[in-house]
Structure formats: C-alpha cells, structure tokens
Write the structure tokens for this entry.
Amino acid sequence: MNILLIILIILGSIITLIIIFGFMSPRIARFERSTIINASPEKVFEQMNNLKNFVNNWSPWTEKDPNMKQTYTGKETGVGALYSWEGNKKTVGQGSMEITKSETNKSVTTHLKFMDRGEADATWTIENQNGKVKVTWDFVSDNGNNPVARIFGRMMDKFMGGDYEYGLKKLKDHCEK
C-alpha cells in the first residue's frame, strides 16, 4: 500500500507542477520572422492578398502534404477570402485561413482556425527599405486559461518558426524572379 501511495503522491506532484508552470506561462503566444525582398511592394502584396497565390507559390505547408484537400470560398482577394484545408494529421492537419484585414501594399491579416487545436492570427507586413521591402510574418495566439495550451504556446516559435522562414524564402524567390 505504501508504494501505491508514493506513486499517487508523485503523480499528483507532477500534475500540480504542470498546472503551476502552465499558469505561469504567458497567455499570448507570439513570434515573427522577417526577410528582405528585392521587389516592389505591389508585387509582394499581390502574393499576400490572394490566398491562392500563398498556397500555390510560397506556403511552407503545401509541399508537406501534396494530397491535402484544399477549398477556396468567398472573395478571391482581400477581406473575406477564405482557404480551408484537410490533410495528414501529422503534417498539416485541418483548418481554415481567412483574410480579415487588408491594407494595400502595407499588410494582410489572416485569422486561422486549426479545428481542434485552437485559433490564431497571422499578419504579413510590408515596409519599404531603400527600394526593397522588408516582409515580416507574425503569429499571435491567445491560449486563454488552459495551462497545457500555455505550455505549448511557449514552444510555438520552435514548432513553426522554421516553416515561417522557409515560407518567406519561397516568397522572396518567387517575387525576385
């Protein structure tokens, strides 16, 4: 009986530590990546403001699951354009991306729904820099009061940062052709 009690105390302590660490973690998960592109703001904005351009030309996830089902609804460009996907759970999962804000040649904000994995917002921002443009792609997610989601939020940069870097490299290569 003593061994069972010790195991229960250890498990209870581990669960308590996870909950405490989770609530000490930030509620908001945020990261960003940037690149410099030798192209006009208009050319870069055209790639961002049309989700078909994003998916077909520079999305870092399109290559991960070539068999993923993709659907476009709403407008083709700008606010209201909606892209949904359904693919391999381990590589791309299921979700949707909708353009919620679009400022010509300046920025595009999207709202992402990852079905059972939560929601987030991502913004592509364009800044003029001596005839080139700096593109910044950010990710912001509110993990609420879920301690486990907050712990995972601490790792979003590590989980998705490389994908953002690869996507920006593809955007740069495409726009500089």
In short: The chain has a mean pLDDT of 93.
